[in-house]
Request: fold
Amino acid sequence: MITRIRAGASLLFGLALLGLLCWALYATARFAWHALLGVNPNLAVALVAGGVTLLGTTITVMAGRYFERQKDIEAHFRAEKIKIYDEFLKAFFEATRAGSQADTVGLTEFLRQWQRKVVLWGGASVLGAYFKWMGRLKLGMPDAQTIFLMDEFFRALRKDIGQSSAGLPRGVFANVLLRHGDFFLQEARKNPSITLNELSKLEKERFGED
Reply:
C-alpha cells in the first residue's frame, strides 16, 4: 500500500514538474513575442518564420535518420531470419530425402539446437505455425493435416522475410516433400484425415511404384 502511494506521489510530482516546465516555456515565448512586437513587428515575424523553418528542417532530418535507422535494423533482422530459416529447410529436406533412422535422429538433434534461435528471431506467426506442426508430428501418425500444417509453416517463413505466397493454393508445398503432390491434394480433398501410409498404398495402386 505504501509503495503504491509513493509511486502515485512520484507520478503526480513528475506530471506537476512537466506542467510547470511547459508553462515556463510558454510564458517565456509569450513574453519574448510581445517584447519583439513592441520593438519591431517585422523582426518578430521574420524571427518566427525563421524559427519555424529551422524547426521543420530539424524535424525532417531527424525523422529521416530515424526511418533510415529502422530500415537498417529491419534489414539486419531479415538477414538473420533468412539464415536461420534456411538452416532449418536444408536440414529438413536432407533428412526427409534420405529417410533413414540415422537421418531422423540427426534432424531431432538439429531441432534441439535450432529451436533456441527461432525462439529469439522467429516472428509470432512463424512460432505459432511451427508449434502446431511439431505438435501434430509428435502424435506419430503423419496424415494430410500434418502436411497442411507444414504448408502453413512454410508460408509463415516466407511471410516473415517479406515474401508473398498469394496465388499459391493451400497445400502446394506438399510438392517439395511428396513424390506426387497433386495426387496427395486430390486424395486429401476426398479424405481430409488420410494418413501418409494410406496415401502410399494408393500411390502404388495408381502409379505402380514401390
